[in-house]
Design brief:
single chain, about 525 residues, alpha/beta, Rossmann fold, GMP Synthetase, Chain A, domain 3, 9-stranded mixed beta sheet, 15 helices, 20 strands
Length: about 525
């Protein structure tokens, strides 16, 4: 589904781990941008997309390698502003007549300090002090700038840290303005957007209106099926579809038995009483538990749950006559993550990021109204749609549910214990007024038992771990720094109120190197 034409910024991806952060920074400024791997950037592609400006991302390769990533020199003939970041700067210099080299003195990793050599619009608002902190991550460096370029800032190991050809509006920076370790990075992006003449026309209000019209144009008088879980993505997707086609939409809510405590009650109330969308409720929890009880491998858990979900969903979907479309809450990060650096479909997509061939199997066409937006934009869109704050601000919840927060073999007992511990943990977070500060929080039950003492008696029960992270869109995350008093109070409640747990731990791993979920 394509939106009406907005001012568009193209981000060319050369394999950097933080390319997505560039898009996030730009979207925050109401700029519509798309990330595309460098192999896709043909003349035809550029003439179709018609970007107003281009950002060349960083990347792990050296421009001097024989098979290093390149982009067509046609981009330099478009007459639009270009910003090269790290590898992107080096590639620009390399392709336009400069030189890049590597030496033992050229590497910079981590914090560095820039010194101003000459004023430029790109650095307006910088250098109120004598130097600025930036984040470097490079082995090569530009040793000779291309004709027409000047040097505007330097660092210890980057004599051309900021370069520009101001006549053509070509800019190159050796550091990474997209990471929060570069404090004034967002200001640099703002300056670049101003140079490129962007007016910030990308809003969720406009997106809502465009998607509603697009859905009407595509669906016409046909019927649409949409699976819901009660999470933000599926709720916003269903509501958007409902706004567009009303009674032509039927939602199916499959309860696989791995939901949080009281979740099915809250979801049914939300859809039947508040949004008033036609809904089929399928409680198949006993069947799911029979299928995966005793399963330990996390990927097998996902696949078994996914396969059974497809079969059950198909069974109930057959009751809806003349359905032609399947609505799904695919987000832009899912789309990005499904394409690897070489432009091919990745082999490591998580099982719950796709529908496993369901639309094709059922003879349905897929409709994905959220595939161009990030998670925080989904929340803004939900607000525009009038969805209650209670649902809009809900923490993300994985498709397989509690099953992947139960490392080791799945048992009814462990799921029951986990559900109670998780409920108390979230209740504590809400009581302490922390829920909206945290991106995602949950308890996981560990596949071990530990010795304890309760009431002068020896216990041998499960240990659980608590997880809470802060994030913008889930692509990177830091653990939440709870006060000791909160952890102590929460641990006491869980151990006293949940039979089966005698030890509580707190996970302080960030992403990367860890993931948010345990499995």
């Amino acid at each position: 589904m394509k939106h009406n034409k907005h001012q568009t910024l193209l981000i060319v991806d050369f394999g950097s781990q933080v390319t997505k952060l560039i898009a996030r920074r730009l979207r925050e400024k109401k700029i519509y941008c798309e990330i595309h791997p460098y192999q896709n950037i043909s003349e035809l592609f550029l003439k179709t997309l018609l970007p107003r400006a281009i950002v060349l991302s960083g990347g792990p390769k050296s421009v001097n390698d024989q098979h290093s990533p390149k982009v067509s020199s046609f981009i330099y003939e478009l007459g639009i502003p270009i910003l090269g970041i790290c590898y992107g700067q080096q590639l620009m210099m390399h392709q336009l007549g400069g030189k890049v080299k590597n030496s033992k003195f050229s590497s910079e990793f981590g914090r560095a300090f820039l010194k101003l050599k000459k004023e430029t619009k790109l650095l307006e608002g910088w250098f109120n002090d004598t130097k600025e902190v930036v984040w470097m991550s490079h082995g090569d460096h530009v040793s000779k700038i291309a004709p027409g370029f000047e040097v505007f800032a330097i660092s210890k190991n980057a004599p051309h840290a900021v370069v520009a050809d101001t006549k053509r509006n070509f800019y190159g920076v050796q550091f990474h303005p997209e990471v929060h370790h570069t404090p004034k990075g967002i200001l640099l992006f703002q300056n670049f957007l101003k140079i490129a003449g962007f007016n910030g026309d990308w809003t969720m209000q406009a997106y809502k209106n465009e998607m509603i019209q697009n859905i009407k144009d595509i669906v016409k008088k046909d019927r649409v099926i949409c699976g819901i879980s009660g999470g933000v993505d599926s709720t916003v997707t269903a509501t958007l579809l409902h706004k567009a086609i009303n009674k032509q939409l039927t939602c199916i809510f499959v309860n696989h038995g791995f939901l949080r405590k009281y979740e099915e009650i809250e979801v049914l109330k939300m859809f039947k009483k508040n949004i008033k969308i036609p809904l089929i409720y399928a409680d198949e929890s006993a069947l799911f538990m029979k299928e995966i009880e005793g399963v330990a491998d996390p990927e097998i858990k996902r696949k078994k749950i996914g396969k059974l979900f497809i079969n059950i969903f198909q069974k109930y979907a057959k009751k809806i006559k003349n359905a032609k479309y399947l609505g799904q809450g695919t987000l832009y990060p899912d789309v990005i993550e499904s394409v690897s650096e070489n432009g091919q479909i990745s082999e490591t997509i998580k099982s719950h990021h796709n529908v496993g061939g369901l639309p094709k199997k059922m003879g349905l066409k897929l409709i994905e109204p959220l595939r161009e937006v990030f998670k925080d934009e989904v929340r803004k869109l939900g607000k525009e749609l009038g969805i209650s704050k209670e649902f809009i601000n809900r923490h993300p919840f994985p498709g397989p549910g509690l099953a992947i927060r139960c490392p080791g073999k799945i048992t009814k007992e462990k799921i029951k214990i986990l559900r109670e511990a998780d409920y108390i943990y979230i209740d504590q977070i809400k009581k302490f007024g922390l829920y909206d500060e945290i991106w995602q929080a949950f308890a996981a039950i560990l596949p071990i038992k530990t010795v304890g003492v309760m009431g002068d008696k020896r216990t041998y029960e499960f240990a659980c771990t608590l997880r809470a992270v802060t994030s913008v869109d889930g692509m990177t995350a830091d653990y939440y720094p709870f006060e000791h008093e909160f952890l102590k109070d929460t641990s006491t409640r869980i151990i006293n109120e949940v039979k089966g747990i005698n030890r509580v731990t707190y996970d302080i791993t960030s992403k990367p190197p860890g993931t948010i979920e345990w499995e």
